[in-house]
Amino acid sequence: MTHASSTSSLHDIVSCMSDYDPHALPVAKAQDIIAQFIAPVQAIEKLAIRQALGRVLATDIVSGIDVPAHDNSAMDGYALNGSDLPATGIRDFNIVGTAFAGRAYHGDVGAGECVRIMTGAVMPASCDTVIPQEFTTNASEAQVGIPAGKVRTGDNRRLKGEDLANGKTALQRGKILRPADLGLLASLGVAEVPVQRRLRVAFFSTGDELRSLGEPLDEGCVYDSNRYTLYGMLSRLGCDIVDMGVIKDDPAELEAAFRSACENADAIITSGGVSVGAADYTKQIMGKLGDVAFWTIGMRPGRPMAFGKIHSQGKSAYLFGLPGNPVAVMVTFYFFARQALLHMMGANAAPLPLIPVISKTAIRKRPGRTEYQRGILTTNASGELEVSVTGSQGSGILRSMSEANCMIVLQHDQDQVSAGDKVTVLLFDGML
Ligand code: AMP
Ligand code: MG
Fold this sequence. Notes:
Layout: H1 10-15, E1 25-26, H2 27-37, E2 44-48, E3 61-62, E4 72-73, E5 77-80, E6 90-99, E7 113-117, E8 129-132, E9 143-147, E10 157-158, E11 169-171, H3 179-187, E12 192-196, E13 200-206, E14 210-211, E15 222-223, H4 226-236, E16 240-247, H5 251-264, E17 267-271, H6 282-289, E18 290-300, E19 304-312, E20 315-322, H7 326-344, E21 355-359, E22 370-379, E23 385-389, H8 398-403, E24 406-410, E25 422-427
Protein name: Molybdopterin molybdenumtransferase
Keywords: Magnesium, Metal-binding, Molybdenum, Molybdenum cofactor biosynthesis, Transferase
Pfam family, one: MoCF_biosynth
């Protein structure tokens, strides 16, 4: 159902690459091909700002007012003219009025005079400085002692338009709206914003051995966990999801599932059935329905992955055929699908930040592939961040993902890691 139109076929894109080898594709190259092939979906809806949390802004938002609208006080204290501040000692000032937030003082303020002022109150004309209450002495209704050397001219005054000036771009199109952005929009008086419509992503699991929750676990079978991790990852990304369940290894069922997904969604994510020895029909049907590449990626875990675009009944959808192993599904989702889905959503999302930290232990690694190990990041006695690997790193061991608080990313060219070396990590949790 996508309206995206990529101008080149996958074949066109890879034929421009000097050393494209689908059987030994470095991670960066696969990411590059995906980025070139994916196009954003164009459709906009207008939402009240609260509903727009987590959504992708579809236009620039230009401020129609100055925020703040007036110079105002940053402190509770006394407003005066800075040129009147004493050079030495303490000088008594006459208090000629009070300025409250939302209720300004409109009178004059002469030499030797000041106005009692509250935080957020408009600065009286001819005042440019606020001395906080705690620096003053002997305050009465009529007078206050103001000492030298506590403030300089202009201190504790917020300037008109210093947060946002009238006519200035407040938020850029493509921004994923966070709590601060909702507040910013409200501060501009903006009640509704245009956002990109949610991306619709259909997903299903493939494999005769998979059982859905509630079914008995027959011999040699496993419960389908991938649909649940995918549900979690896609929900957090803000996608509209279509969970199509487990599809058996039957050509007619698989074809029907791919067609239905294609007709109803912008992107399709499957797990399982894409490895070299896969004894099922998944790859065959993917290939039959569109422009799909089958890759062996230089990574661990992960390796097999299908990517492309399939077509059915005049509709098309991007396809991510992820491997079946539960950890591999998460790694390939985060390092390939995530960025592509964000791009389809029209989001200007920076790549995930990798942080250099100390490795507590040696890690076996050979150059020529990217490795994603599950790590636990802690702070040592000197306050430095250091990481250790969670127990077993098998690609089927989902517990390793659950226990970890970060992913250790060992880059393509990296060799063995010794204890004390720097490695890069991707944090699982951050401020949202
Ligand atoms: P495959 O990529 O289909 O060869 O699957 C690789 C491994 O992942 C096999 O051990 C599968 O049983 C397992 N697997 C595949 N899909 C799932 C799933 N949805 N949930 C849990 N394990 C799975
Ligand atoms: Mg399978």
